[in-house]
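Example record

The entry below shows one chain as it appears in the dataset: sequence first, then structure tokens.
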Amino acid sequence: MSRHRLGAVLRSGVVVTVLGAGALAAVPAGAKGASYVTVKELVSASTFVKKLNETVVSPTGKFVGRINSNTGAIRGKLTLPASATTVKLLGIGVARATIGIAPTKPVTGKVNFSTFTITTTSTFNLQVRSLAPAGTSVNLVGSHCQTATPITLTLTGPFQAIGSSTYTGSFTIPPFTNCQGLALVLTEQASGPGNTFTGTFAPA
């Protein structure tokens, strides 16, 4: 067997190991030399917002994409449901915030077959979909409150041969805009560097 062919076999084996046996179904029968494998993962995520000293846990989300078994290139879409958390803001007091993300680009990345690690980059706007003072249902920020510029988040970590894999990354929260007069408050109390995201990915 040639060195090139041996390398391709080893890389394909790594991809199938990472994604689980179900990934084999993504390669059509008889598709000799097919180089893409579909990925479907459940995602458990949490975000630590440094300025608020608050950890926000997201409901289970999904990652759907594909991996090039020759190059290791990853491309896909990460979907996370909105999260609710209690915050304390100056001038407002205790409030219930509903937070979501709105992707602006596909997730891209790469499997490193030499080090058995994965790196991905996501770009998205952080949205404050509602902010209601405790005991009320009044949304103080309207329906367009979000970061003024997109966030870029790079996740890295080793993948596990069996079960789930966990990836982490840090990011900066930009200033907020379109928040019905509360953009400055949210910017002052939430925007800045040193925030961390942790995502655990498991075969769907």
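Notes for this example: The two ends are 35 Å apart (CA to CA). DSSP finds two helices and 13 strands in the chain.
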